[in-house]
Amino acid sequence: MKYSGIGGQAVIEGIMMKNGCAYAVGVRKPDGNIEVVKDEYHGFSERHAFARLPLVRGVFAFVESLTVGLKTLMISASFYGEEEEETEPGAFEKWLEKVFGEKAEKAVMTLTMVLAFAMAVVLFMWLPLFLAGLLKPLLGNLSMLAFVEGMFRLLLFILYIKLISRTEDIRRTFMYHGAEHKCINCVEHGLPLEPDNVLASSRFHKRCGTSFIFLVMMISILFFMVIRVEGLLMRFASRILLVPVIAGVSYEFLRLAGRSDNPVVDLFSRPGLWMQRLTTSEPDRSMAEVAIAAVEAVFDWKAYEAENFPDGPDALGKKLKEEYALQRAVQEG
Fold it and tell me: Count of domains in the chain?
């Protein structure tokens, strides 16, 4: 695998692909056509060198990815809100316009991020801590208590993903998530960026946000098995205060994994890849086409592959292409 620097995320009926400061949102519109919106995002870490230091950069990268992610979600949603534009704005919308004026959209983005963070703190920090605390008389040992807390956190995450995946919109989002991964894998294994090659590629990728979340949960268990704090409120405070540190360590490992084929690194990456079975699904051809459109708006994949794969696809790329061709031949009789 050759690192390309491309990242992305699934959005509403589409995909965002990012390369450096440039990003593009490809959306399959209600009329069936693909619309691509291209823009740039210059974050805090681009302007300040200290924000690019190891461990520190992970925190800023996480916040900036949330900012870009929310912005691109709103872009994709706008294509599906066009039919409602002629309706009378609601009371809340009128209040936002009155109070914030032209900054109403940014205010909504900020409020959404704050509410999402608060919900994540309650669901994935406070609740596991509380549930584990109920077992304290049985466990006694604070290290074991931290381990059980981590297992509760992992279980709640899996249940949450399973629950939201029951809706049709989320299922389709997970399919677009799979298309995003397949598209990046296609490029990074030297296959020409064509729908068949994208569909032949793997839907699992080591740089995925799902892997990052899994790493955060696993590393937090190790941290809190060592850092022992008495009292429920003090333990909760320690979880909040150490979030930047844990996120920074997790980011460094994910960054290494995305640039390395080392067997040891691959071994530790596998649990995160297994978790992606929950958040990705096999996409259809139309979704692969959206992913390609988004990549081509921000990345010259032909120049990249000419430089990194002068002899054609790597061994895995060739194998996947052959297997997919055989699979299609069998399906078509």
Answer: 1
